[in-house]
Amino acid sequence: MATQDFLVELGTEELPPKALKPLSDAFTQGIVKGLEDAGVEFGAVESFAAPRRLAVRIRNLADAQPDKAVEKRGPAVKAAFDDSGNPTRALTGFATSLGITPDQLDTLETDKGAWLVYRTVEKGKPTVELMPELVEKSLAALPIPKRMRWGAGKTEFVRPAHWLVQLYGNTVIETPVMNLKPGNKTRGHRFHCPKELIVPTPADYEVVLKQEGYVLADFAERREQIRAGVNALAEKEANGKAVIDEDLLDEVTALNEWPVPLMGRFEDRFLEVPAEALISSMKEHQKYFHVVDASDNMLPLFITVANLESKDPSQVISGNEKVIRPRLSDAAFFYETDRKTRLEDRIEALKPIVFQDKLGSIYDKSVRVAALAKKIAEAINSDPALAERAAMLAKTDLVTEMVLEFTDLQGIMGQYYAANDGEHEDVAKALNEQYMPRFAGDDLPTTLTGCAVAIADRIDSLVGLFGINQPPSGTRDPFALRRASLGVLRIIIERQLPLDLQTVCEWAEQNFTVLTENNTASTVVDYMLDRFRAHYDEQGIGAEVYLAVHARRPTRPLDFDRRVKAVEAFRQLPEAQALAGANKRVSNILTKQGGDSIGEAVDNSLLQDAAEKNLAARVEEQAQKVLPLFEQGDYASALTSLASLREPVDTFFDEVMVMADDEAVRNNRLALLNRLRNLFLRVADISLLPTAG
């Protein structure tokens, strides 16, 4: 089948920078899916995205769908003809619906009789007929929360669309898309090349734009050019290092078609303001990259990326310096003003701020969190007074001028202001560490005071919201309780804190008077333990290992984690599958014979066969060895030791009839199996692991 390259480019007004990459990806995926569904063969797929264009190029696109054999079954032969052999209405109706005569039908023999069938070959549609509809559908399905209209037309898109390139080889596919007449003409840079440019073939697309139009159409190429240019400029002009935030880099890439990095300067006096405030101001409002020295100290420099090559770059730099100066002046003013009022004097200002209608104000939450943090601090051998103090001050920076202007600085400014107030170093740090980890993989609190406040704040939210029956549902999680749960688990495990979730949630529950749900603490604990599944899935630990431990419901996260790691190690042993199978068999037997009513006291005088005597001796020997290990939480060593029971267990089941006629002997054997199983259950329900086939 013949092939040609295909290109589609939609030209628009400047697209939203944060949405550009997702729009480009979705546009490409929509076209690819359309081709796959249509059965059209194609080669490599390339995406292009710039502020005023979305484009997709498909290499070696077949010129048509493949022909498809079609078979349509009609009536049974017996029902198709009457006794005289003439066609019945069933047959003539079927033939008429297909636009054929009965003699064009074949007969299909099946085990249920003979049927009339119509067989034909459906010709594949030419690609030039398919592509406009695929492009239109892909554009219609883009993730655009709010579409707009322009001009007198009824077409809607994220921004007004002005031109369309639609080429198959060197041929324009002339079918309109979004009421735009396609052609082979794109447009260059708005200032450097404000004219139409001919694209002879899809292969010429980015070359024409780059060489004639001052447009780098490839998003990834443009992104790396900006990164390299910014880094080189920082090193060359300041012997420094540009700090490149990846999200900001994506946004800057989406703002520029022809990026040119330029370095500007601001007054040294602004460096007295916390670096985070300066960075936030430059990054959020101006999309600047900041520069640091070899010791990571901020320099009074910034790098902006202009969307053109200026004949006089100093004018562009000067303009940017004039724009950033009032921004930094505002930050300096906020910082100076905020430091005149101590954080403790701002506690009252939290009372009018609602946390949640039924759960009260931010002040009410602070009081609850302070009481809970104090208890947690005692439990982890930290200073309860410091934790209580930090929790009461934790949200006070929310009412400072700086955080009201730059909301992403909450906690960060709290730490600076607490240090300025002369608060204990751990208290000051905790005001920032309360929000850690902010996202997956983020740093954890470094102080125990910070750990206590971070855990208390999240547990208070979990217990409060579950207690008024407002848990997360589906994709709705307005209070980020899933993230809060994972944060608590990470802090406890990675900081190795001896906390029991059940106890901590019960402490939290006692601080509320408005909860309407029963057993809130237990419900929250179950919810949090369920979050462990995703936690271990990310580490490559199978669901069966998590489920084996979860079946025992250990409520101390550190203990839960040790069990999971031990079971994962046990699962790798050659004896694991056989012992998992034996545990499953034992579990089934015990369940049928009374379950929990069966004890585990073995009477040695009732042991008869050599295999059961040997198993009893080995179980007793292992019990003496592993019980101290369980007490120490050394589950890995305990399970490794228990793996040695595989052979006596196998022999027991091969040679001993558990359900003996003698009731005393039978019950004694059940007790032995129960004792065996309970040793494993001290760690996890091993019967849930995969067994030997």
UniProtKB/TrEMBL annotation:
Pfam families per the UniProt record, alphabetical: DALR_1 (PF05746), tRNA_synt_2f (PF02092)
Subcellular localization: Cytoplasm
GO molecular function: arginine-tRNA ligase activity; ATP binding; glycine-tRNA ligase activity
EC number(s) stated in the UniProt entry for this protein: 6.1.1.14
Keywords recorded for this protein, A-Z: Aminoacyl-tRNA synthetase, ATP-binding, Cytoplasm, Ligase, Nucleotide-binding, Protein biosynthesis
Cellular component, GO, one term: cytosol
Single Gene Ontology BP annotation: glycyl-tRNA aminoacylation
Subcellular location, principal: cytoplasm
Record carries keyword Magnesium: no
Catalyses which reaction(s): tRNA(Gly) + glycine + ATP = glycyl-tRNA(Gly) + AMP + diphosphate
Domain spans labelled DALR anticodon binding: 585-686
EC class: ligase
Subunit annotation: Tetramer of two alpha and two beta subunits.
Record family assignment: Belongs to the class-II aminoacyl-tRNA synthetase family.
HAMAP family listed in its UniProt record: Gly_tRNA_synth_beta (MF_00255)
Protein name: Glycine--tRNA ligase beta subunit
Native source organism of the sequence: Marinobacter vinifirmus
